[in-house]
Structure formats: structure tokens, C-alpha cells
Amino acid sequence: MSHQRVAILISGGGSNMASLIDSMSGDHPARACLVLSNNPQAGGLQKASERGVPTVAIDHREFGRDRAAFDAEMLKTLLDAQPDILCLAGFMRVLTEDFVNHWQGRMLNIHPSLLPKYKGLNTHARAIEAGDAEHGCTVHEVTFALDDGPILGQARVDVRAGDTPEALAARVLKQEHKLYPAVLRRFCMGNKDPVLLP
Ligand code: GAR
């Protein structure tokens, strides 16, 4: 059986990326083919190398404000690696419509909130400030609208009295590491029913 190929886009530490790579073994229908970062200093690049996955860094700063040129360079690099599926894992760049359209139905993202709540940044602080009893994370298909698109899975976390954004983020991240691999495995099998954890 030939495996589906998954490329993972990161900007930082890459803990979600590592959990995705580690999940793609044994009878899993996919394998990681490339890790791409817009940040050459991203700690995740070393984690990917340690796991034997090829890495590329394309520094977005070299493209100034030209998002289209940056995305075109990413697309060229990705096409060489021939991925079937793209996973955004802490990738902190807004993508152009052309790029999103190219991967339509084949690009996933993980976002640290229970979407549609708290699109964008500082999600943990916003959940605490709003007095929410629960918070969590969402994996969704990427469409051109930011942090939108069909929801493929969610994991919930209780907000505790006295929680700081950092403490809450750490508990959500643990759930992210369970949710994203679970969603990817099902997605690879053509199943888009939402995965609900815990
Ligand atoms: C994760 O919490 C992910 O949900 C978030 O960035 C973190 C990356 O951590 N993504 C976003 O905020 C996207 N808008 P990681 O590099 O350790 O996986």
C-alpha cells in the first residue's frame, strides 16, 4: 500500500507537528513528507529532522509585504514534495486566496479555541476574560476566511478558578496533541465526521 503524503507547515516549537509525525506510523494511511517553516529559527525544524522528515525554511521576511510571492515560493516547494494533505500546525501567516484555493479540501488547521469562538490571537486570555467555563481547541478545514471552514474536531478543557492564560494554554495544548492526530487519521480515511474529545 502506498501512503498518503502529508506536509506540515509550522512557525514555532512544532509540538503539534511532532505529535502528527509520531502518529503516522504502523497501519496509519499517511506519512509525513515535508515540514516547512516560514521561520528559519523555528524549533520545530530540529524536531522534524530528528524524526527523519525533510525540512525547508522559507523566510517570509525576505518577501517584504509581497504575500503572493511568498505563497508562490511555498507552493513551488510543496509541489516538489507532492503532498496529498497539508496540515497547518502553529503556522502563523495569513495565506493568500490562490494558495488556499490550490489546497481546497486538503488543508487542515488547528486553532486554540472552541471555534467559532475566538478567531485570531490571544484566545486563552479572551476565554478567561469572558468568564467561560470551558475552552479548548478545534481542527478545521482551511478556507479563505480566517479560522473558519468546516469543523473536523474539537476537544474541551475546563477553565479553572484563577487560571492564567499560560496555564490554560498548556492544558489545551495537551488536548491538541490528542485531537489533531485523531482527526488526521480519520480525514485520511475519507471520514470528515467531527471528532469530539474528551
Ligand atoms: C498551538 O497552540 C496552535 O493551536 C496555535 O499555535 C500553537 C502552536 O504550538 N495555532 C494558532 O494560534 C493558529 N492561529 P506548537 O508549535 O507547539 O504546535
Explain this structure.
The chain has 6 helices and 8 strands, in the order βαβαβαβαβαββαβ. It has helices at 15-23, 44-50, 67-81, 97-102, 123-129, 165-188, and strands at residues 4-10, 30-37, 55-57, 85-88, 107-111, 134-141, 151-158, 195-197. The protein has a single domain (4-191), classed as Formyl transferase, N-terminal domain (Rossmann fold), CATH 3.40.50.170. Strands 3-2-1-4-5-6-7-8 form an 8-stranded mixed beta sheet, with helices on both faces. α1 packs parallel to α6 (165-188). With 198 residues, the chain is α/β, with parallel strands linked by helices. The structure holds glycinamide ribonucleotide (GAR). Residues 10, 12-17, 44, 89-90, 110-112, 137, 173, 176 line the site of glycinamide ribonucleotide (GAR).
Helix share bin: 25-40%
Q: What is the tally of helical segments?
A: 6
Distance between the termini: 32 Å
Low-confidence stretches: none
Q: What is the mean predicted local confidence, pLDDT?
A: 97
Determine Rg (CA atoms, Å).
Answer: 16 Å
* CATH arch. level architecture: 3-Layer(aba) Sandwich
Shape: globular
Total domains: 1
How large is the share of residues in beta strands?
15-25%
What would CATH call the homologous superfamily? Formyl transferase, N-terminal domain
Elements, N to C (H/E): EHEHEHEHEHEEHE
Which small-molecule ligands are present, each listed once? Answer: glycinamide ribonucleotide
Query: Strands across the major sheet, in which order?
Result: 3-2-1-4-5-6-7-8
Biggest sheet, open or closed, and with what strands and sense? 8 strands, mixed
What is the number of strand segments? 8
Highest-level CATH class: Alpha Beta
CATH topology: Rossmann fold
Structural class: alpha/beta
